[in-house]
Amino acid sequence: MPRYRLNYGDVREFEAQGVGEVVPILQERHCVGGGDDEHSFMRRAAMEMCEWNGKNYYFHSRSAFGESMIRNGLLEVID
């Protein structure tokens, strides 16, 4: 199972079957909007990340969101 490193706010490592599993990891630790439905949460998080580093984030699916985070340096596969 791949191991990922999340570099958003603080650094956190986790194991997951796919990149899209970053969404519940983010959602459980997020201060604002953590109780939103998943799509609303991803939309809010994508806007925050875009404001934070000015890059594009796709949120039409969990995997698209995770791949955007990898492409923009907020998430990496470490193992």
**Helical residue percent band:** 40-55%
Major sheet: order of its strands?
2-1-3
- Low-pLDDT parts are none
- Average pLDDT confidence is 91
Number of helices: 3
Summarize this structure briefly.
The chain has 79 residues and is an alpha+beta fold. It is built from three helices and three strands. It has a three-stranded antiparallel β-sheet with strand order 2-1-3.
Task: Write a concise keyword list for the protein shown above.
three-stranded antiparallel beta sheet, 79 residues, globular, alpha+beta
Topology:
Layout: E1 3-8, E2 10-15, H1 22-29, H2 38-53, H3 62-71, E3 75-77
Antiparallel strand pairs: 1-2, 1-3
Describe this structure in words.
The protein is an alpha+beta fold and 79 residues long. 43% of the residues lie in helices and 19% in strands. It has helices at 22-29, 38-53, 62-71, and strands spanning 3-8, 10-15, 75-77. It starts with a strand and ends with a strand.
